[in-house]
Amino acid sequence: MKKTLFVAEVAVFSALVFVATIVVAIPSVSTSGYINFGDVVIFISSAFLGPLGGFVAGGVGSMLADLMYSPVWMPVTFIVKGLEGVIAGVIFVLLKNTFKTKKFGLPVATALAFVVSAVEMVVGYYIGGAIILGLSSGDWSVAFTSSALDIPGNCLQGGVSVLAGGAITLLLCKIPYTKNLMEKNLSVFKKRANKSACEDVADAESENLTE
Fold first, then answer.
1. Which residue among 8, 119, 173, 174 sits deepest, i.e. has the most Cβ atoms within 10 Å of its Cβ?
2. Within a domain: residue 14?
3. Taking a C-beta distance cutoff of 8 angstroms, is the pair 17, 55 a contact?
4. Number of compact structural domains in the chain
């Protein structure tokens, strides 16, 4: 039942990422890509569903949006937006657990998780854009130079998404239902992390006994 509910939640967030991506689609300066704010939902999904949910929602939802606007970007988007969801989810879970007794814990976890993942998005699309242009033109120096022209737009996209996604996440955390949803989903990853840490300790103790 829990797995079915989680799959349903991931599907809903994937659909929301798709919609948020296609609603605002501004053509980029030098590549065939476009500026969008699907990252807002990717950040929120990572906070509420954890790294796995963030990866699927970010990668699949964004990739399907590219199918409509710019199919050539689909592989790059799946990797970049999927990693964006993973990074945001991992950092959010770790920091939220670390600062759980602090008043500023949730805002700090949200800000750092979203900012770092937004940086990954900007860097990822710069490299991805250069690869796409390089493969099509054969001139790699021009490809990397041209792809750099999209960095300001992607920074704007990332910055706005961090602010909007962070504000919405903090707001949803004040609602009992969505707060419980977050705690339930993230507790799974915390248990796995704790289990892994305990296994490492047990292995170390076992090695010490055999020496």
1. 173
2. yes
3. no
4. 1
Q: How far apart are CA 44 and CA 28, in angstroms?
A: 25
pTM across the whole model: 0.86
pLDDT tens digits, 83-130 = 999 999 999 988 887 776 567 788 999 999 999 999 999 999 999 999
Taking the C-alpha atoms of residue 77 and residue 73, their distance in angstroms, rounded to an integer, is 6
The reply to whether 207 falls in a domain is no
- Provide the pLDDT for residue 156: 92
Tell me the torsion sign for CA atoms 81, 84, 86, 89. negative
End-to-end, the C-alpha distance of the chain in Å comes to: 46
Residue 211 maps to a domain: no
Q: Answer whether residue 203 is part of any domain.
A: no
Query: What is the DSSP code string of 21-36?
Result: HHHS-EEPSSSS-EE-
d(CA 173, CA 100): 13
Q: How many CA atoms lie within 13 A of 102 on its CB side?
A: 11
Q: What is the dihedral of CA 81, 162, 38, 172, to 10 degrees?
A: 110
Mean pLDDT of the chain: 86
Q: Residue 132: which CATH number?
A: 1.10.1760.20
pLDDT above 60 for 54:
yes
